[in-house]
Amino acid sequence: MDYRYDVFISYRRDPFAEEWVHDTFKQLFRTHLREAVGGRPVEIFIDREGIAEGDAWPERLKNALAYSRCMVSILMPSYFHSEWCVREFAVMEHRSRQHGMWTNEEPGGLIVPICISDGQFFPETAKNINWLPCHDYFRVGEGFRNLGPFQDFQNDLVAWVGKVARAIDRAPNWDSEWLTEEWLGNIPMEHLLLSKSQIPQSKL
Prior knowledge:
Number of domains: 1
Number of strands: 5
CATH superfamily: Toll/interleukin-1 receptor homology (TIR) domain
CATH class: Alpha Beta
CATH architecture: 3-Layer(aba) Sandwich
């Protein structure tokens, strides 16, 4: 067996975020990533397209994560209140560390994030990973495409997809162990889940 997907896109199913991911980000990302990997087709898993009618969606998500080379996480504070998002992040974080990544010798990893907030309330693990700041581009609707920031977004995306291409190349050999419950269900993730006690009371 081998990988099926180059990239797993992980995001919180908030209606506004979902619209931005599918209508603003996804196609631009696919087009520019294809060029960054030499023009070959790229296989991207995203839940709306990758889960068919009749699939058991938790198992389908776990399966797709196990078969993905790397992950693009769309980070916002509520991402770290979602057990599913945090589980996805934790699995790929664990895989990175188990294969000697995020170290002085290999500072890169298998998670290449985009941030659509200021990152103030993120857990320390996420704060320590370099992300593409997209707070100013977190807009939906046709009107945004006619504004200057949309061009800035495309320029930033073109420069950033090279990092995703390098994460794809960095992926270790595929391992069937990643399909087991030990990897998909029991990876520690408490350090990533946020609680209300971690947010200043004045901000609640």
